[in-house]
Amino acid sequence: MTGIIILVVLVVLVIWVVSMYNGMVKSRNMVDQEWHNVDVQLERRYDLIPNLVETVKGYAKHESETLTKVTELRTQAMNATTMAERAEANNMLTSALAGLKVQLEAYPDLKANTNFLSLQEELASTENKISFSRQLYNQVVTSYNTKIQVFPNNIIAGMFHFSAKELFELSSQEARQAPKVSF
Q1: Domain count of the chain?
Q2: Nearby residues of 78 by Cβ (< 8 Å), 6 or more positions away
Q3: Sequence-separated (6 or more) residues with CB below 8 Å from residue 43
Q4: pLDDT, averaged across the chain
Q5: Is residue 158, in this structure, part of any structural domain at all?
Q6: d(CA 90, CA 152)
Q7: Distance of alpha carbon 135 from its chain centroid, rounded?
Q8: What is the SS3 assignment for 78-124?
Q9: What is the pLDDT of residue 106?
Q10: What confidence score (pLDDT) does residue 6 get?
Q11: Is residue 5 part of a domain?
């Protein structure tokens, strides 16, 4: 009888550990999936930027410094290898694009150009999708981090080397400020 009780307790314990482990794996996979969703939107942005820059070049000759900066930041963001580097580079790119959009308000002919308007709308839509993807990614990461840090999950997480994931956040005070524009 004692052997049956011990066996039942062990089976329940194994089922409980497997269930917790599977839950953590599912959460970790959701984090990875949401990061890839952010990545898809960032790639879309990278593809739009050269078209926008080429369209603007014909109208805004003296804004070449801003256009060069946007192009350099795009390259930097595309070449980033870690999530933290990619987040920082994309935050700087977001600020540069916001500054460019504000500067371009001074060009009525450009604002009336249908190609430019289409690109600008597409970029604005992409920026909204990036923002949404970042928020969803951060929600999933917070849920995952909480799951692996609460007791008794933290014991199982430690045994199987589950580690906390980084949130996608602004890395500098500069990125938190609105762009300054001077004409």
Answers
A1: 1
A2: 46
A3: none
A4: 81
A5: yes
A6: 37
A7: 8
A8: HHCCCHHHHHHHHHHHHHHHHHHHHHHHHCHHHHHCHHHHHHHHHHH
A9: 64
A10: 94
A11: no
Residue-level pLDDT at 15: 95
Model pTM score:
0.67
Give the mean model confidence (pLDDT) for residues 76-81. 85
| First-to-final CA distance of the chain | 87
Burial class for 39, CB neighbours closer than 10 Å (0-12, 13-18, 19+): middle
Domain containing residue 137 = 40-176
Query: Do 162 and 28 touch, CB atoms closer than 8 A?
Result: yes
Q: What is the pLDDT of residues 55-74, one digit of tens each?
A: 766 666 656 667 777 888 88
For range 11-21, the mean pLDDT: 94
Cis peptide upstream of residue 179 (ω within 30 degrees of 0): no
Count of Cβ atoms closer than 10 Å to residue 148 Cβ: 21
**Token pair for 153:** 């999950």
| pLDDT computed for residue 142 by the predictor | 96
Residue 29 has a CB neighbour count (10 Å cut-off) of: 12
**Residue 4 maps to a domain:** no
